[in-house]
Amino acid sequence: MNTMVIDIKTKFQELGVDIPVEKIEERLEKLIVKFKVPQEEAKRSVVNFFLKEHGIPKEKFYGGLGEVSFLKVTDISEDGKWLNLKAKVVQLWDNAHGSISQVGLLADETGTIRFVSWVAAELPAVEEGKTYVFKNAVSSEWNDRMEIILNKSSSIEETPDDIPIQGKGQGTSSLVKVADISQDGQWIDVKGKIVQLWENTSESISQIGLIGDETANIKFIKWARAEIPVDVVEGRNYIFRNAVTSEWNGKLEITLNKTSSIEEISDEIDVIARDAVLTAAMVDIQSGSGLIKRCPQCNRSLTKGACAEHGKVDGVYDLRLKAVLDTGTIAQDILLKREVTEEISGITLEGAIAMAADALDQGVVLEAMKQNLLGKYYTVSGPRVDRYILVESIKKESVLDSELLAELIHEAEVF
Amino acid sequence: MAGYTREAARRIFAQEFRESNLTFKDGNDQYSPQYLFTPTGAKVNRMFIVGTLIEKEDIGSESEYWRGKVSDPTGSFFIYAGQYQPEAAQVLSECDTPEFVAIVGKPSTYTTPEGEILTSIRPESMYIVDGETRDLWVLDTARVTLERLKVLPTSHPDALRAKEHYRTEAKHYASMVLKALRSLQEDIDVMDD
Fold first, then answer.
1. Is the interface score ipTM higher than 0.90?
2. Can you tell me the distance from the alpha carbon of A396 to that of B132, in angstroms, rounded to the nearest whole number?
3. Is the same domain home to A257 and A289?
């Protein structure tokens, strides 16, 4: 970070502005350490902040300094850009042109790109399988593809670092929770318990029934033509691999085909009873939430002081939340009664009534709850009724699952 | 499915969002939803991001029109909020930078005179959140991005479309995810020290 601070300070000095080191340091540290902004972006942001403070146009700072940045192969997308690149020579091609010194293919961990080194550039020759730092190369578009050109101002330097180069991605279906199955035609792995086996009504079906995990149950069909050697047994636990989701009569089910497999496992899976459990971000709180009034006779919520059934009545105050939890694949409506609303929002019914009386506006309660709750992650559980989950317990998520983190890092590494 | 279903808010890292340039409508009438289609095959009509608001500026001439820059471990999102995004505009006018923010919004694209397509977010709502929520979002977004990458080699229609339009290299986005995840791991290591 120190070099960044000095870098920023020197550049501003060149423009005739002296900024105390501590001020740069403070802002940079706040962005990087406390607010987790990537270093380069933090540096840009700090520069922009001081440029604005001193009324210096951005062009004056960035223009003319001729700083050439290091790019990854797949980031090279613009014609005529000066760039630095660290890459391995994966292939050298025969060159047919007298003006070309070398031509071939470079690769880094993101992809591959053609390069051309001109005779006129008078650069040292590169060798296949070695890694080099190419400086001041120029990108260029040729036959709709990007390539890089090495010219007189470019330089090539061999480096002992071996960089992992881009290989082919391997395709697997992903292990999902049953409740996250939301789309037709997806390849998935499911780990669950056979909750029920149904009577088989068709010759084309080998087995049919319900499989469940801790999030939900779903119908599965094992086709006879899939020729899967394993017959599942009720109450036992399995992993279905390469199953396909499909929609039938408006409901999702999973089917096992020729490429699918079934494996019995020893893990005991807790199947969801009647309660749905969901962890997701709260993305909306709907009108009719917060402090409301209910009809003393039928308990319906009042609209502008009137009950749809009993007309104008003297309402009774209540608290509730109608919110939307979003997993990224489904948007789930949830309903929170008074006790859970009080617990998660930290606002009691009495407190809410006082707030509303203070502000002469019931809406302040809803606004406070929105500020407090939205945009964060929660785990809720409770029975499903129609399109709602009636929430019986709710907890704000705050701890990062380090096991999941390690697992995902491993997954990302093997691509 | 009967009736109206709310569009789920997709999770996409800033880098993938910046590298997206394909939009289409699902259906022909004027009410058909508009989607941004990303290189890993996410169909985005609504999105949810959590990041660090690092810059904000009122770029409006007559009425307020706010531009904000929200950073995640892979890059930055641009958000634009004017009179039709009153909630977000109010947050932008009142808050300081830097600050952790959560935004639910619609993707929007702009084509420059040079033909380059720039993406930004029109926020429906914007809230100030905590650092833990930001970390959870990074993990969440990494998880679903990897899931999309795993579907990519299959003949799923979204995967085929992504490969056809973007010639998506799974490796490129896997390393983006890895970068994001490693930044979380570094934070844990710092805390453990």
1. yes
2. 10
3. no
Taking CB atoms and an 8 Å cutoff, what residues of chain A touch B14?
A: none
CA distances from B34 to B1, B26, B46, B68, B123 (A): 20, 7, 10, 23, 15
Helix (H, G, I), strand (E, B) or coil at A266: coil
Q: How do A217-223 and A205-212 pair as beta strands?
A: antiparallel
Looking at the predicted structure, is the pLDDT value of residue B161 above 70? Answer: yes
Preceding amide of A229 cis, omega within 30 = no
Q: CA-based diameter of chain B, in Å?
A: 58
Asked whether the predicted pLDDT for residue B193 surpasses 90, the reply is no
Whether residues B153 and A167 touch (CB distance < 8 A) is answered with no
- The structure tokens listed for A359 are 């502000």
Whether residues A193 and A249 fall in one domain: yes
Whose tokens are 């290591």? That residue is: B189
**What span, in angstroms and rounded, lies between the C-alpha atoms of A94 and A85?**
23
Distance CA A231, CA A238 (A): 11
Residues in chain A within 8 Å Cβ distance of B182: 409
A chain contacts of residue B185, beta-carbon cutoff 8 Å:
405, 409
Q: Count Cβ atoms within 10 A of the Cβ of residue B104 and give its class: 0-12 exposed, 13-18 middle, 19 or more buried.
A: buried
Helix, strand, or coil here: A414? Answer: coil
Beta bridge partners of A218: A211
Residue A69 phi, psi (nearest 5): -100, 155
**Exposure string (b/e) for A275-304, b if CB count within 10 Å is 16 or more?**
ebbbbbbbbbbeeebbbbbbbeeeeeebee
Q: Does the distance separating the beta carbons of A329 and B104 come in below 8 Å?
A: no
Show the tokens assigned to B82: 């004017």
pTM: 0.63
Q: Flag whether residue B100 sits within 8 Å of chain A, measured between CB atoms.
A: yes
Residue A371 token pair: 């500020």
* pLDDT for A171: 36
pLDDT per residue as tens digits for the range B17-64: 999 999 988 878 878 889 999 999 999 999 999 999 999 999 998 889
In a domain, A299, yes or no: yes
Q: How many domains are there within chain A?
A: 4
Residue A406 located in a structural domain: no
Show the low-confidence residues of chain A (pLDDT under 50): 64-65, 167-172
Amino acid at B144: V
pLDDT tier for residue B4 given thresholds of 50, 70 and 90 = low
Q: Are A371 and B125 in contact (CB under 8 A)?
A: no
Give yes or no for B144 touching A (CB within 8 A): yes
User: Per the CB < 8 Å rule, is A375 touching B129?
Assistant: yes
Residue A365 near residue A348, CB atoms below 8 Å: no
With contact defined as beta carbons under 8 Å apart, do B93 and B83 qualify? no
| Pairing label, strands B117-128, B99-111 | antiparallel
Q: Which domain holds residue A184?
A: 174-272
Pull the structure tokens for residue B165. 């339009």
Identify the structural domains of chain B with CATH numbers, from first to last. 9-185 (2.40.50.140)
Q: Read out DSSP for A332-363?
A: EEEEE-HHHHHHHH---HHHHHHHHHHHT-TH
Which is it for the CA torsion A275, A280, A282, A283, positive or negative?
Answer: negative
